[in-house]
Amino acid sequence: MAIDQFIEFETREDLANQLAEDVATRLETDIEAGHFASLALSGGSTPKLFLQTLAKNPSFESDMTYLAMVDERFVPPTHERSNERMIRDNAGLQDHPDSEFLSLWRDAMTPGEAAAAAGEKLAEDEERPFDVLVLGMGEDGHTASFFPGSPQLAAATDPKQAASFLRVEAPDVPDPRITMTLPVIVEATYLVLHIEGEKKRAVFEEAMKDGPADDLPIRHVLRHPDAHLNVYWAP
Asked: Rounded distance, CA 191 to CA 187, Å?
């Protein structure tokens, strides 16, 4: 299992403070070296406090940071279910330039076309590997948009997948999604799994045991030899 550290916090506020400090410090180091830093973020409700805290951190230079999303519902950035909207709103990035924010939404494109276009732009921008990449995890063991039962799960988690992003669908998931693929995720310089609550800890501990990776797709990350995962957990 590719776990570098498992850090427990007494409160979610403590976790948000430390994760924001760790992320900002690592990005600052890259900026001081004379180039843009790169940060990939996940959606959902769990990261909101972390993002709000990161926005207030004086070391976080958003204007020198290339931002991307690990996954996205294929809805416009103004939509209430948009991960891009959530990230921009909570991290104070409403005015972050589009050139340095890799949106996964494309007008007048299908989800598959948008995924390919995002991969092309990421290649053009030459921001791989990401300096910091923050994953979340659902109570079903999914991470990114690697959902149990997804017809595209095998392709998205293929260690030899050449595409950076893929269109995915999953049972009981209303919107088509676009997800980063496994090779992009595991190559990140500082790879984080941010989870909160006893249920998610129990799922994570189950994922550490033997069993089919597709049943709890976070196992695809945990079992990849190149991944060095730093887990941040609070009750």
From this structure: 8
Structure tokens at 106: 């494309």
- Cα–Cα distance, 123 to 75 (Å, whole number): 23
Residue that has been written with the tokens 């340095």 in this structure = 100
pTM: predicted TM-score of the whole model, two decimal places: 0.97
> What is the tens place of the pLDDT at every residue in 194-230?
999 999 999 999 999 999 999 999 999 999 999 999 9
* Chain-centre distance for alpha carbon 173: 18
> 68 near 102, Cβ under 8 Å?
yes
pLDDT digit string (tens) for 121-161? Answer: 999 999 999 999 999 999 999 999 999 999 999 999 999 99
Are 137 and 195 contacting, i.e. CB atoms less than 8 angstroms apart? yes
Assess contact for 143 and 216: CB atoms under 8 A. no
Domains and CATH numbers, the chain: 3-234 (3.40.50.1360)
Q: Cα 152 vs. chain centroid, distance in angstroms?
A: 18
Residues 174-201 as b or e (16 or more Cβ within 10 Å = b)? eebbbbbbbbbbbebebbbbbbbeeebb
Count of alpha carbons within 13 angstroms of residue 37, beta-carbon side: 25
Q: DSSP letter at 128?
A: P
Helix 83-90, helix 48-56: angle, nearest 10: 40
